[in-house]
Automatic annotation (TrEMBL):
One of its GO terms (cellular component) is nucleus. Residues 143-301 form the SprT-like domain. The lineage of its organism: Eukaryota, Metazoa, Chordata, Craniata, Vertebrata. It comes from Panthera pardus (Leopard). This is Germ cell nuclear acidic protein. It comes from the Eukaryota.
Length: 357
């Protein structure tokens, strides 16, 4: 058995082909200039070639960059979060998706640049300043004003698609709500839609408030009677509200809620925190009720008008006479009813007034 101690002996005992291979390896290593000290290997040059010293540079070897591994299979279900997300918008109701929706192109935009509409017979601009609808005359003429406004809106905004007359009434129990529209459908004798509008008697106490509240409620009625849609303040109501402002630019913006300052007749004020409570009548007993914020006592303030000017209390002479003499007449004749006492007081007051006119 022959043991090779080093590559030199192996190269000498090999054939000429092996010597040529060793020569190629030595030449390749010498040209690259790479050698390791203390490796225990001696590369011998081929015979007939002089040994040359290989200069070993002192520079550190460059780091080897790791090559990225090739993935075996493609990655699935990669979720990429977009940088900017678009805001979510509420789409049309699925229930009425098949029905035809009104388009904004139907609105007449020719009057939007003017402060007053050009419709003949329109009286909506500064209607609260008109003589027949201002002050105390408003209460007298409010019913005729409602019908005139409805006819005007039906002709100009809704193209006479609404009925000529609709049930519009006044509600004295609505203390903070300006208006209410009730919609339904009759089944007998025939299937027919209907709408009913109620206006608050205490909130809508002027012609301008009546005008703004009425157009709001008519838009509710039109969305049901014309389009068959009952979506509260949805797309159909918004379309008619926008069309009303385009046709009548003198109207304020038709919005969902009102911002009216309710004109209470009587105000109660707290003596400590000065908080005020409004009432339409003298229904608050100050002996039983206190302030909800600071538990202070409540005092009724003097009566004032809408503009804030105080109202001087006016007591009629006969009422003052009854207040002073009612108890005396009641005690002088026992068994008299209230009506008999009042008749006696009226006779006494008439005699006194004749003597001292």
């Amino acid at each position: 058995m022959i043991i090779d101690d080093d590559l030199c002996g192996q190269g000498q005992s090999s054939s000429n082909e092996k010597e040529m291979e060793a020569f190629d390896v030595c030449q390749h290593n010498s040209s690259a200039g790479v050698a390791e000290l203390g490796s225990g290997e001696n590369l011998c040059p081929p015979p007939g070639v002089a040994e040359t010293e290989v200069e070993i540079p002192n520079e550190e070897p460059a780091p080897v960059v790791e090559q990225p591994r090739k993935r075996k299979s493609k990655t699935k279900n990669i979720c990429v979060v977009p940088a900017v997300t678009a805001p979510k918008t509420r789409g049309p109701s699925k229930r009425f998706a098949s029905k035809r929706k009104p388009h904004a192109a139907k609105c007449d935009k020719s009057h939007t640049g003017h402060s007053v509409c050009e419709i003949p017979g329109c009286f909506l601009h500064d209607v609260e300043k008109a003589k027949q609808y201002s002050g105390r005359k408003f209460k007298k003429n409010k019913d005729s004003l409602v019908q005139e406004m409805y006819s005007l809106f039906n002709r100009s905004v809704f193209d006479k698609k609404l009925p000529e007359k609709i049930d519009i009434g006044w509600n004295k129990k609505m203390l903070r709500t300006a208006g209410l529209c009730t919609t339904g459908e009759t089944q007998y004798p025939k299937k027919e839609r209907y709408a009913k509008i109620q206006i608050s008697l205490k909130v809508c106490d002027s012609a301008d408030r009546l005008r703004d509240t009425l157009i709001h409620e008519i838009c509710h009625a039109a969305s049901w009677l014309i389009d068959g849609v009952r979506d509260s303040h949805g797309d159909s109501w918004k379309f008619y509200a926008k069309k009303s402002n385009l046709v009548h630019p003198e109207l304020p913006l038709v919005t969902r809620c009102h911002n009216y300052k309710i004109n209470y007749k009587i105000h109660y004020e707290c003596t400590q925190c000065k908080a005020r409570v409004g009432r339409y009548t003298k229904s608050l007993n100050t002996d039983r009720f206190i302030c909800a914020k600071c538990k202070g006592t409540l005092v009724m303030l003097p009566l004032t008008r809408k503009d804030g000017t105080p109202i001087a209390p006016h007591v009629r002479p006969f009422a003052k006479y009854v207040q002073e003499n009612y108890r005396l007449v009641k005690q002088s004749a026992e068994g008299l009813s209230h009506g008999e006492v009042m008749r006696q007081l009226s006779k006494d007051y008439a005699l006194k007034h004749k003597r001292n006119p």
